[in-house]
Design goal:
CATH class: Alpha Beta
Distance between the termini: 61 Å
Number of strands: 14
Helix content: 25-40%
Shape: globular
Strand content: 15-25%
Oligomer: single chain
Largest sheet: 7 strands, mixed
Number of helices: 11
Bound molecules: S-adenosylmethionine
Number of domains: 1
Order of helices and strands: HEEEHHHEEHHEHEHEHEHEEEHEE
CATH topology: Rossmann fold
Length: 393
């Protein structure tokens, strides 16, 4: 039998374990989980505060300024830039050809010697850590959020159950920074999305769909895996208080990019009815996805799904894609690269160049100068893309 307490206290890290930065910097004394899910993974409940008043936004601005300043100092010291002038993915060229073996550990991984942190780094980091959510429940103290909740009204708190440190196939059970970016944009442009019918692809915990649900009429939040979809549905239920009456129905559904059809099996818990498919095709004018470009085959599958769905919609449609470029040093390239991002950009270009008789796809990047409504680090690797799928006939 599984010892639940031990499992909750000692989550197992495997070689393919990934942990989202969103869950990383949190005060040590405030951690523990609320339950184990069906897969035996510890589940956390985090509260994310929506910054609505000017005081919140101003303090958030100070956090961003501190982070920008820190980043600038870091670049000055290294004389190095992460991106080129075109916003492309590659770090300035470096030659590592000599003595690289000396930097590798026994498994061939690169061992990076970190520069000592300066007092100003620590100060800025402290500022960030104090304010970056989530706040994790203390073990055995179910009302740990009470103080915080008393300070701000319930309508300012998004409650999300999620896991941490999952294997790659379960990344959707964590919250990713690009989901916050997309949520920010939705809140910033809320009037534009009012009363829309929306489809989210790879919605994960559902946080972006939930935020969209506060303004849109109906959101189909889709993903794959019963366990993940159950968690997502639980999150939708936890956030009913954010929805305005008569608006914001968030329906959790299965949509696998690797399949050509919607799941309509009535026995499957998150399958689609014929009416729902017709409703989507008749009314959806907006499709969105956050942090779904990390594997080339999945990227191809997602673009195929986008193509198929936009061709079945009755109306023209806008697609928003949020992502975080992940830079890695590879021995193959002897450089810092971002292959998944390059593949995404190539595929995006192919879509725009497509000669299609029914739809013209136009692609544009969105400037990230809109304000933040959620507390996270808006790092320069975040991007938001808009695709307009205009019906030609
Ligand atoms: C990195 S997570 C992002 C989750 C969420 N959008 C966020 O940003 O927090 C990638 C998501 O893509 C989903 N995904 C992966 N393969 C998929 C597929 N074949 N069909 C549908 N969704 C898929 C995962 O389950 C996961 O929820």
């Amino acid at each position: 039998m599984v010892d639940v307490t031990e499992q909750m206290d000692n989550p197992t890290f495997r070689s393919d374990t990934v942990l989202s930065d969103v869950h990383l910097h949190r005060p040590k004394k405030r951690h523990l989980m609320v339950r184990l899910n069906a897969a035996g993974q510890p589940v956390f409940l985090s509260h994310y505060k929506l910054l609505r008043n000017t005081e919140d936004l101003a303090s958030n601005e100070r956090v961003r300024e501190a982070a920008t300043e820190r980043e600038r100092e870091h670049q000055d010291r290294n004389g190095d830039e992460l991106c080129d002038k075109d916003g492309n993915n590659l770090k300035k060229e470096r030659k590592f050809s000599e003595g690289v073996e000396a930097l590798l550990d026994a498994d061939g991984d690169l061992e990076v010697v970190r520069r000592p942190q300066s007092a100003s780094d620590l100060e800025a980091e402290d500022l960030l850590r104090d304010r970056v959510h989530p706040v994790i429940l203390m073990k055995g103290k179910e009302d740990a959020f009470e103080d915080e909740e008393q300070e701000c009204s319930c309508r300012d708190i998004v409650k999300i159950e999620h896991t941490m440190a999952t294997p790659l196939e379960d990344v959707g059970k964590q919250v990713w920074r690009a989901a916050f970016l997309l949520a920010d944009y939705i809140l910033f442009k809320r009037d534009m999305f009012r009363c829309c019918s929306v489809l989210e692809l790879g919605g994960g915990t559902g946080i972006t769909s939930i935020i969209m649900g506060t303004v849109a009429k109906r959101v189909y939040c889709t993903d794959v895996g019963e366990d993940l979809l159950a968690m997502c549905e639980q999150n939708v239920a936890l956030n009913k208080h954010l929805m305005e009456p008569g608006r914001g129905e968030v329906k959790v559904k299965e949509l696998d990019w690797l399949k050509d059809e919607f799941c309509t099996d009535p026995e499957a818990p998150y399958s689609w009815s014929e009416e729902e498919i017709a409703d989507l095709y008749d009314h959806c004018t907006l499709i969105m996805a956050a942090d779904v470009f990390y594997d080339d085959d999945l990227t191809d599958a997602l673009f195929r799904t986008l193509y198929r769905i936009t061709h079945n919609l009755r109306n023209s449609c806008t697609v928003y894609l949020a992502l975080e470029k992940r830079l890695n040093f590879t021995l193959r390239h002897m450089d810092v690269t971002c292959e998944a991002y390059s593949h995404f950009r190539n595929t995006l270009q192919d879509l725009e160049n497509l000669q299609d008789r029914k739809i013209k796809y136009t692609v544009e990047p969105i400037k990230l100068d809109f304000c933040q409504f959620l507390v996270y680090e808006r790092i320069e690797q975040l991007e938001l893309w808009k695709i307009t799928a205009a019906q030609l006939m």
